[in-house]
Request: fold
Amino acid sequence: MDVPKTIKETQEGLLKKDFSAVDLVDEYLARIEKNKDLNAFITVTGENAYKQAKHFDDSNDSSGKDFLKDNPLAGVVVAHKDLFLTKGVRTTAGSKVLDSYVPAYSATVVRKLEDAGCIMLGKTNCDAWAHGSSGENSDFGPTKNPWNKDYVPGGSSSGSAVAVAKQMTLIATGTDTGGSVRLPANFCGVVGLKPTYGAVSRYGIVAMASSLDSVGHFGNSVEDVEKVFAVTRGEDGYDATVKTVTSDQYPVTSGKRKLRIGIPKEYFVEGLDREVEKAVLEATEVFKKKGAELVDVSLPHTKYAISVYYIIQPAEVSSNLGRYDGIRYGNDRASFGDEAKRRIMLGSYVLSAGYYDAYYLKAMKVRSKIIEDFDEVFEKVDAIVAPVSPTPPFKLGEKTSDPLKMYLADIYTVAANLAGIPGLSIPSGFNKAGLPLGFQLLGPRFSENTLFELGKIFEGKNVKRI
Amino acid sequence: MGMGSLSKDDVLHVAKLAKLTLTEAEIEKFRKQLSEIISYISQLSEVDTRAVEPTSQTTGLTNVYRPDEVKSEKSLGQEEALSGTDQTHNGYFKVKAILEERSDK
Reply:
C-alpha cells in the first residue's frame, strides 16, 4: 500500500478504516528495512510500535472520532533523533560514549507526542552529539542522501530528515543548534521547523550548546509541522528557558494587511551557488505574486555570525560534555570521536585564562550586534527569506578533512540560533543534478504563526515527492 | 604567539583542561586544525564593541524559580539512578581511587 502523505490523510484513513494503525506500522517498518542502506535509523522499535498501534486500533473501535480530540496526533508515526531520551529504549546521541545507554526517563517532547497518540518507530541517526553539518560525524556511520547516495543528507538531524523524505516515518524530531533541522530538511527536500529559542522544552534531550539549542520537527508539509509544534510547545516545569506564548500574543497577520518579506543583501553574495540563489529568488517571486511586499533589508553583521557561533557553541559544548565521565552511565572520555574532541578543545581554549575576553566575551558582544540587526529589520518586515545552505548537497567525504570548510556550510543558519528567532525550511524544487533546493523563512521571536502562514501560501506550488 | 597559531603545548594544555587523552598523531592533526579555526574566528577583533553589552539569553527571561519541594514522581529511584552502570557497591556508584598511597610512610 501507499502510505498517507499527511497527518490529515492518515487520520481520515484510520477513522474510515481504510487501513488500521497496525497496517501502517507494517508498511513503515517495511520501508525502513528496504532503505537500510541509507543508514537513517540507529534503533528500530517495531515491538513498541505494534503495541501502540494495537492500542490505537482498539480505541478506534470503541471511541472513534472523539479519540482525536484528546489525542490530536493519534495514529501518527514518529521517529526521534537519537538525542532524545526514550525510557527503556537505547539512546546514543550518535556517539560510542553512549552506545549502550538506556535512559530511565523520556524527554518531554517524546512524552508529549506519545500522550498525543503518536506511534514511535525508532531512533534516527545523527552526527555524534549533534556536531555536524553533513551527517558524517556519526559513530554509527554516515547517513546517505535519499536522492543520491553519493551525497550527504545534511546534519546533524540527518536520519530524521531522510526518514521523512523516504516515507520511513510521517513525522520526525530533531534539534537545531546552528541549523541541524533546517539544513537536513533543505538537503533532503522536506519541511523543517526550528522554533524560537525556549518555545519547546529541551528536558531529556542531550544538551549541545544551551544558549542556542532548540527542538524542532520534520514533516512533509507545513501544516503537519505546525500540528506537531502545537503539541510540543509550552512550559513543562523542567526547562527554565521555556516560555509559553499564547497565539493571542502573536496573532496571525493574514487578512489584516499586506505581509512584508525582507531580502537581506548580505545573504546574496559570492560563494552562494547560482542554482540555490535562483531557487530562493523564485520563492520571493511566488510570495510577491500572492500579494506580499518584498523589501530589501540589511543585516550588516552577517559575516561575523560563523565566528561568533564557533566560539559560543564550542564553549558551551565543552561545558555540557564535561558530564560524560563513564561513571554513572556510558563509556569514558576515550570514546569521544574527532569532532567532539575538536569542539571540546576549541571551547576549552576560548574559555581558558588569557583568552576568555578576546574570544568568548567578545563573541557574546558581537552576538548582541547580530541580534540588533535582526530586531531592526523586523521593525520593517514580517519575515526574511534566505538560503539555507550556500550550496546544494555536497558529496560524502568532500569536507571531512577540513573542519573549517565544513563549519562554513552553516553560514546562513547559525544567525537564527544566535538571535533565538524561529526558522522554517521549505523545499522548492531540484537542481540540474536532481538534488533538492529550497529556502528558509526567518521571523521575529515567537512569530511561528506568520512563518506557517507564509509557508502554506508557498506550498500552493506543487512539490515533487519521492 | 600570534593569534591563531597553536603550539603543541597549547594543545596539550586544553586537552588536559578537558580531560582528553590524545595520541601523537592527534596532537599534530588538532594543532593544525584548531590553529586554522582560531585564526578564522579572530576576525571578531575588528568589530567595535565598546558600548555593547554581551548577550547570553535571547528571550529576555531572567531567573525562573519553582518551590524547592521534593516530588517523588519527578525524581529517579535509587535503582533507576544506578541503572546506567554495573559498577556499583551497596547502592552507590563505584569510582576509581583518586588518591595514591603515600610512598614516604
Summary: The mean pLDDT of chain B is 91. Chain B is about 30% helix and 5% strand.
